[in-house]
Every structure is written in C-alpha cells, then in structure tokens.
UniProtKB/TrEMBL annotation:
It comes from Sphingomonas jejuensis. This is Glutamate racemase. The keyword Transcription does not apply. The lineage of its organism: Bacteria, Pseudomonadati, Pseudomonadota, Alphaproteobacteria, Sphingomonadales. HAMAP family: Glu_racemase. The keyword Isomerase applies. The active site is at residues 75, 189. Pfam families: Asp_Glu_race (PF01177). It catalyses: L-glutamate = D-glutamate.
C-alpha cells in the first residue's frame, strides 16, 4: 500500500460530498478522488436494472484508473441496489451508504420515523430489511423526492432552495397517517444532508434529521487504521462522467470541499 493511494468516493452527483466532509475531518491527509456519474444523473428515477448495470462497471473503470485503497459508494440509491455486485466485482474494501434507520430508531421517542430518499431507494427491499432489523417497533413512513435531489445540486451551484419547496417535500412525510407523531427523519439520500439546515428551518416543527455520514467516516478510519498517509493534505480530484456548464458551475463548491475543478473521466 502506497501512502498516496487515494480513497475513492462515488455518487451520481454532488451528494457524496456530505460523506466526504466528515471523512476529511477524521482523515485530513487522505488523498481523495471524488467521482460523480453526471452522465447518469439522477439515479433516483432510474430502474434497478439500469443502476445494477451502470454502477459496478463504472466503479471498475475508476478502480483501474486511480488504484484506490478503498472505495466509498456515497449514494444510498447505488448502495441499496448494487453494493453486493460491486463488492463481488472489486478486489478492495467497499463501504456503502445505506439509510440510517438504525441510528434514527435509537433517537426516536415517538417511534414514528420518516425515510426521505430517492424514489428508487425508498422502494428497495434493503430498506424493509433495515426497518425489520433495527426499527421493528417503529412506524416507518417513506417518501421519495427527485425534486430535493435537483434542489441540492442547484444549491451547490449557488441557488438557495425556496423554503416553500422544502416544506412541500417534508409534507410528503408529515401528511401521511402517523406523520403528526414523526420525530425523526432519515436523510436517505446523500444529497439531502447538503440541505439539512434549510430543511430544519423550513420544517413546521422540530424534527431530528439523521444521516450516516459520521458513521461512514468512522468506518473508513477503522478500515484504514495503521495505513500510511502523505505528510501534507493535498487538493483532491473531482472526476465527472460528463462535464458541461452545469458541472463547471460546481467548481467553487467543489473547492470548498477541498477538490479541484471537474475533470472528465
Ligand atoms: N445521492 C444519491 C443517493 O444518496 C442519489 C441522487 C440521485 O441521483 O437521484 O441516493
């Protein structure tokens, strides 16, 4: 293992930056390659078959090119559908991002938990299994929102999300039977954590917003324990499968996360 071997982060877009941020806080010298499948974005409205075909192939290319020490699928949609296939195809540790139902169940007092993800994630059997295993005594409400994904991408290009749009999205959970008792919401899409402050401000009452970013950072630190890192932190690379005006407009936000301007894979 060479000290300069990077940690690879993968998402359909900028959502994975919400997983990168806590990882950087724990491992400030880790070399980073952040890969976004902008040509395939958004994943949340795609079929299972499309994601299952796309994600392992793309990760294979990325691993061949960058030789990372570890890969992080910083996307709930890709992880709940393709994590097993990626692990089977790649010869390195792969950390997935799955809805943080377990920590939410530990926090909820009312035992009503919302899962806010993409349409593809909220319908996955993986979510049923998490609910059965970790929140069997809870009512789980689910809502998929492609709009919130788009608002998060726009926010990183500098367009603040309108509060009324966020309120409407939260109403997708709050207006369901039992929603009046919901006290915790799992941000089950990595994009959504990028808007957590705006979501909290738009919510009609306090809600605990729970995501898995800190847990994933701890997992990466654990899996790389004892490995060497470069002595100084360096700018990470941002690699996109499509680079057009929308991606170029992300450069200032990518810089805030310690990444260079988008390069084409
Ligand atoms: N960030 C992704 C997730 O965590 C998906 C966003 C999308 O491409 O729809 O699910």
């Amino acid at each position: 293992m060479r000290d300069d071997q990077p940690v690879l982060f993968f998402d359909s877009g900028v959502g994975g930056l919400s997983v990168l941020a806590p990882t950087r806080r724990l491992l400030p010298h880790a070399p980073i390659v952040y890969a976004a499948d902008s040509a395939g974005f958004p994943y949340g409205t795609r079929t299972e078959a499309e994601i299952a075909a796309r994600v392992p192939a793309l990760l294979g290319r990325l691993v061949e090119r960058y030789r990372p020490r570890l890969a992080v699928i910083a996307c709930n949609t890709a992880s709940t559908i393709a994590l097993d296939a990626v692990r089977a195809a790649l010869d390195l540790p792969v950390v997935g991002t799955v809805p943080a139902i377990k920590p939410a169940a530990a926090l909820s007092r009312t035992r009503v938990i919302g899962v806010l993800g993409t349409d593809a994630t909220v319908r996955q059997p993986y979510v049923d299994r998490l609910a059965t295993e970790f929140a069997a005594d809870c009512t789980i409400l689910r809502h998929g929102s492609a709009r919130l994904v788009a608002l998060a991408e726009a926010a990183l290009r500098g367009d603040a999300p309108p509060a009324h749009a966020l309120r409407e999205i939260l109403a997708g959970l709050l207006d369901q039977p039992g929603g009046d008792r919901m006290d915790a919401v799992v941000l089950a899409c990595t994009h959504f954590r990028l808007l957590d402050a705006a979501l909290a401000a738009a919510a009609p009452r306090p809600l605990m917003l729970v995501d898995g970013g800190d847990g994933i950072a701890r997992r990466i630190a654990h899996l790389t324990q004892g490995q060497g890192w470069p002595v100084a932190s360096a700018q990470g690379a941002a690699v996109f499968t499509r680079v057009g005006d929308e991606e170029r407009a992300l450069a200032p936000a990518l810089a805030r996360f310690g990444l260079g301007a988008p390069e084409l894979l």
